[in-house]
């Protein structure tokens, strides 16, 4: 399989802040790849380095084999980026915006493809509307359209669904999944972990500029397999001392990560013996959020080798 | 060169869509200057043997063209930086040279458009001669290019609108107003004549005016040498800035 994006020991400093501390990743052609991490983990910096908006202090990035610095023309033609910020040029209509963006990539008479993108993103009715008059969700869709005018084989979406309503989010994902099926490589950063779980075949988790987990979504979920038990005690009674160490508390709800269902009975027995009454109880399967929290809490210890 | 052409088209479309403000307003301002100064001075002053109103017209044309060339590139860049839409021109495969040429060419075009507007409207009051039009064209194009490039430097350097306004009010305005638009520097005291000779805008205006009347404070060849050198220096500085990615690519 060909490599769509290769990131090799990339470092980026902003003054004394080390935003990327030697990130290495390889993304194969046709992958739907997730880039996750808390705010400030370096996701957007990494994307900026890939897009040429930021210049790394060390390391090398290539897109389909083309170096993003020395062969920037080829590399940028192969890349479409949907930026995180909701930006637009207030002087132009939607169609003008897309025609101009096509021209920047050396493409003239691109109206057939522009019409197709507009139809897929449900923007046809707004084609001649000024950018200023669009709602936030529509501006977001135009950003997606702008990233696609030159039919890039690699598409990067940086938090594309932030502030977008549910219906539009579904429509957007269907479109992006179709692009992925058609062979486009998709790289996604998102705060909605259920989206990453549903869409991404492989995920890298970043923390403080380092890759702290990199695996298929399935393996990551398997690594933290098990259930989560959440319960509330009547009258917000305190949890018995013996259970405190294995639980986390948030707004009166105690959460236990279980290795298996067999652990439930002893736990309930302990509560019964302590005279606690349970007000509410829920049992859930591990999801990507649990994996994410598990990785983030476990990562970043000195001397720990990040799993590759 | 499609990238360059599209960027130039975008830059021209941008100012054209708000032409009331970017072309109409400066033409009106220049017209007001002409009406006031010619009313006060027409019967009292002749410069190089030319009646004052006619003498003033080329100066006003050039001053308006220069100020608007600067305003075009600087305001476009700062606006797209502040709103974040600059990313749309940074993501595509456009070289820094294409970037430079497109912004400077758009600035020259806006300068020419404003200058032509001022010339046509002020000709209601007096018709200046145009004895050597090629000199006038060369100076207005080179002057617009210098100001367009300076506008790029200011637009890239400034992080906020008030920083850009500072650049405009404390550097561009004094340089253009005190450049012999309203007078011949021979009418100044010796000290200020010498100071004026350090102002490159003086040579732009003086050379431009030579195109109209065939007379000037310094020979047009000298002015051309100064203006061409200024253009090369400012362009080199702008290109170095763009190539380094200063404040555009972190």
List key phrases describing it:
heterodimer, A: 308 residues, alpha/beta, Rossmann fold, 2 domains, six-stranded mixed sheet, 11 helices, 34% helix, B: 250 residues, mainly alpha, two-stranded antiparallel sheet, 10 helices, 2 strands
Would you write up a description of this structure?
The complex is a heterodimer of chains A (308) and B (250). With 308 residues, chain A is of the alpha/beta class. Chain A is built from eleven helices and 14 strands. Chain A folds into two domains: 3-222, P-loop containing nucleotide triphosphate hydrolases (Rossmann fold), CATH 3.40.50.300; 226-285, no CATH class. Helices cover 34% and strands 29% of the residues of chain A. In chain A, the strands form three sheets. Chain A has a six-stranded mixed sheet, sandwiched between helices. Chain A has a four-stranded antiparallel sheet with strand order 2-1-4-5. Chain B has one domain. In chain B, 76% of the residues lie in helices and 2% in strands. By secondary structure, chain B is an all-alpha fold. Chain B has helices spanning 2-17, 19-41, 52-83, 87-90, 96-122, 133-157, 161-177, 190-196, 200-213, 220-244; strands at 46-47, 50-51. A two-stranded antiparallel ribbon of chain B has the order 1-2. Chain B is built from ten helices and two strands, in the order H-H-E-E-H-H-H-H-H-H-H-H. In chain B, strand 1 (46-47) and strand 2 form a beta hairpin. In chain B, helix 1 runs parallel beside helix 5, helix 3 (52-83) runs antiparallel to helix 5 and helix 9 packs across helix 10 (220-244). The chains are: A alpha/beta (308), B mainly alpha (250). The interface between A and B is medium-sized, with 33 and 27 residues.
